[in-house]
Protein: small monomeric GTPase
Amino acid sequence: MSRSDDSILTTLKILIIGESGVGKSCLLLRFTDDRFDVEMAATIGVDFKVKPLEVDGNRVKLAIWDTAGQERFRTLVPGYYRGAQGAILVYDVCNRDSFRQLDRWIAELDTFSTKLNVVKMLVGNKIDCEDKREVTRDEGAKFARKYSMLFIEASARTREGVQIAFEELVRKIIQTPSLWKNEQKITVDTINLNDSENSNQPQRGCSC
Structure:
């Protein structure tokens, strides 16, 4: 173990889930690399990034899994829920159908998660497209309260809310020691794949 690893409190597995086109990969890219790619291709299966983060003096390493939203990749995903301490559920505030589908994503998370008290963060993305909004902030907050989730609205394009979303999620996980104490370090060799077939497909509403 390196000296830098000695200061790491723990490694946390975080999932980003939600419908295709809501901006999951853009949120991840903004958080990990502080970049925004308007032409980012759809994810095949699962993308994976590692990011260190310090919250309240606690330094952790995040292993973040960005899951594909397309139905044709659903059979690839269940195994990736195993061991996750946190999940970010994303919908597009400009697409009401992506908001309606959240119940299905929560049911899937509850079905395949191996940790009963996994911390959930609801993120309403694309608030930079206010003129196209279909889901109000109050609706998002009400839904989050219904499922005892954290809640924030964000924009991968402008950075607003992105860093805070991850920090608040990690803060809550750290405050729940049963989720991460005695956990072994997560090691992953997942390949980062992008769906070039879908990269030029038009997306509903504004970009991620």
Remarks:
- Residues 3-186 form a domain with the Rossmann fold fold (CATH 3.40.50.300).
